[in-house]
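Predict structure. Chain length: 260.
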Amino acid sequence: MVVGRRHRFVFIEVPHTGSTAIATELCVSYGGDPLYHKHSNYAEFWHLASDDERRFFAFAGVRNPLDAIVTDFLRYRMNPNGQYTDPKMLAENGGWVRREHLDRFDFVLAGNDFSSYFERYYRSAKVHFNWYLAAHRPFDIVLRKEHLQEDFSRALAQMNVPEVRPIPVKNVTAERQSDFYALYDPRVRPLAKRVFGPFMKKWGYEFPAEWGNEAPPRASMLAYEAMDLAARSASRVVRLGPHDPRILALRTGLTALRAR
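Prediction complete.
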């Protein structure tokens, strides 16, 4: 999360949406300050913000989930910086790599193709939902990773903030599949529509025409709507415990920002 008091904004860093580049640029060029931890959600900010801070321009990012999954698959295959084989990266040693990551890494390393990977790990999923985008207050703008620079420029314009420079590129996956849809062979396309169709419809993404014009199953749409309503309602009323270290860190951060 990045908060800028001079320009009155709060940016929620949704994972895998180009958020690192945006957050860095907000801090370097627009007076932003990182608050609490990188992937805090809007509810964490809202519950400790003043009435004035709650009116700050709020924005976040979104990405086509089918693209994100292909990127995950490629990372497992390439094992960048040896992150899946470095003991220091294991969760039990203080890192972020959990058993489920290692299971996927081993599956990909065994030579299984993308469709096999997709079937194995998404067959049991009910519907895709991104909790970072479920704030009870609508974001003023959501930046689509597919045209991040254009949307960031629009966000600055809406804030009446002059743009300093283009966004520096960060965290680009090497050898990334340019046409990620090509990896989804016909046997997994119905599964993709069932799991990801509601999210894609919500955020304005479309499946390729050659996949057919069948709408996502009604059960998937209802499941997504129920999750969205529950998440937005919970973010309005659920608070962290008064002694939760996240509360203390966020309160300290907001106090420091107010003192500027």
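Summary: Residues 218-237 form the longest helix (20 residues).
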